[in-house]
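Hi everyone,

Forwarding the result from last night's run.
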Amino acid sequence: MQIFHIEENDANQRLDKFIKKLLPNAPLGGIYKMLRTGKVKIEGKKRENTYKLQVGEEVKIWLSDEEITTLQRMQDEEIIPKWNIGTLQKEDILYEDDALLILNKSPGINVHPWDHKTDEISLIDQVRDYFWKKYNSLTFRPSLVHRIDRDTSGVIIIAKTKRSLDSMLSQLQSGGFKKIYHTIVLGRPSHQSWTIKKPLLRIEDAHNEAKVRVDKAWLEAITHYSILEIYPHIWDKSASLLECQIETGRTHQIRVHMKSIDCPVLWDEAYGDKKINSFLKRECLLKRQMLHAYSVSFLHPETKKNLTIQAPYKDDMSGVIQYFRKERV
């Protein structure tokens, strides 16, 4: 028999879900049987599957130490530091306190290990390696508040506690987040500032990266843009540095909306101009789409004060802007 004490990060969740997180190798049928037969008790009492755990409660599980170790193995392996993985760089940490870790993500890395069905080390792997034994929870791990594409750089927020995660997700769903992106596009939009309102459809069985298209019968998507700089002497169409604010967070939203107004994001392999992309690859050694999550503004989950975090451009995007500015002179 082992005893587990419920702290804040583990409270307010259903008992069956808690057991599944605590013992990830246990089948659901086995968990329900344990609860039904009294092998799991809260403060000495059997509880229903849907019982919500409270801070300070004591959970007793009547299994041998060997059985519990076997059923926990996935969880234990997850928090063992992977010394051979890429580590977070100090200069990429934009902000950190007891509730949040905010990073300036580099391009070319997935934010989550499940993205793109790859075995590559993800950003969240690096984050959990960074924290390692600083966890104060039986079941909660530092978690992504939102996501950005693999080849998009910029601001990404990680919640360090369950309470901060719940608060941030609530803001995200209610529109309390203000997310600003900077992007370099081919051509010059017809308006200095404008709002693109074009619904987007995600194509689930797409065989390439271009898995989103404008579709008037599908999900609303709203992007506000304004022109920051124009580079008129780049090829025969020029290029533009734009600031985009998104009201909705659809997959590839900015990339597809820019393509829809004939101003595709530079070096966007899925939605961009293949001829210009090939030139940029040779001339600027460019390897990813010029899209950067520049800033986020939100209400801090603990202090309740407004917070704005900005991420400086990565070297590749700064280099392209400097190249275009020289060409413009």
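The chain has two domains: 2-79, 90-328.

Cheers,
N.
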